[in-house]
Design brief:
Length: 194
């Protein structure tokens, strides 16, 4: 179980850091967390960054200590969630190509991506994060991991709702509004829209 947990995290973070490294080699700054922002947007991004670092540390400790109070079947469900989360995250990063960023960039122009996995989720990278985090929580359940997982997922939601969506509405106007009306925030298409 511990090896599987480490592997799920390794695949996830390898994808994350390899993409950042590739973009850096192209002269693209990927990490924009808290940069060029003020007020609530800056606070959300900084708190989200801190929460993701804390979650990673607690996940590693939970795997190392092999903590859990759940039966094997629940832990196996966690494995499946974690693997699906890896797949969703990798698909989102690959589909975004050079438009992928960590946080919103007001200076760099990117494209609005609506194809591939973005046809069924407006935020598949965050969905991937959420699935990996929930999978880890089911595999290595403990109270501290549960609390930090919940807080981090809430920070992701605040980032989407109060930072990314307002930015995309302002940046891409009608194009984003049409997309917003057709595809759900996390998963699924909305019916009744063309």
């Amino acid at each position: 179980m511990q090896i599987v947990g480490y592997m799920i995290l390794l695949v996830f973070y390898l994808c994350y850091f390899i993409k950042m490294f590739q973009q850096r080699k192209q002269g693209i700054q990927t990490d924009h967390m808290g940069k060029g922002k003020q007020g609530i947007q800056k606070k959300i991004e900084i708190m989200m960054k801190g929460a993701t670092i804390a979650t990673f540390i607690i996940e590693i400790l939970s795997i190392y200590l092999n903590t859990t109070t759940f039966p094997l079947i629940i832990r196996i469900m966690g494995i499946f969630l974690g693997i699906i989360g890896d797949i969703v995250f990798i698909a989102s990063v690959l589909t975004m190509k050079d438009s992928w960023r960590v946080g919103v960039s007001y200076e760099e122009k990117t494209d609005l991506i609506t194809d591939g996995i973005y046809q069924i989720s407006r935020n598949p990278a965050f969905l991937g994060f959420n699935l990996v985090y929930l999978g880890m929580c089911l595999m290595f359940f403990n109270t501290i991991l549960l609390i930090i997982t919940f807080l981090t997922i809430m920070m992701f939601h605040l980032q989407i709702k109060y930072v990314e969506e307002p930015f995309l509405k302002q940046e891409f106007k009608e194009e984003y509004l049409r997309y917003y009306q057709q595809v759900n925030r996390y998963i699924g298409k909305r019916t009744g829209f063309k």
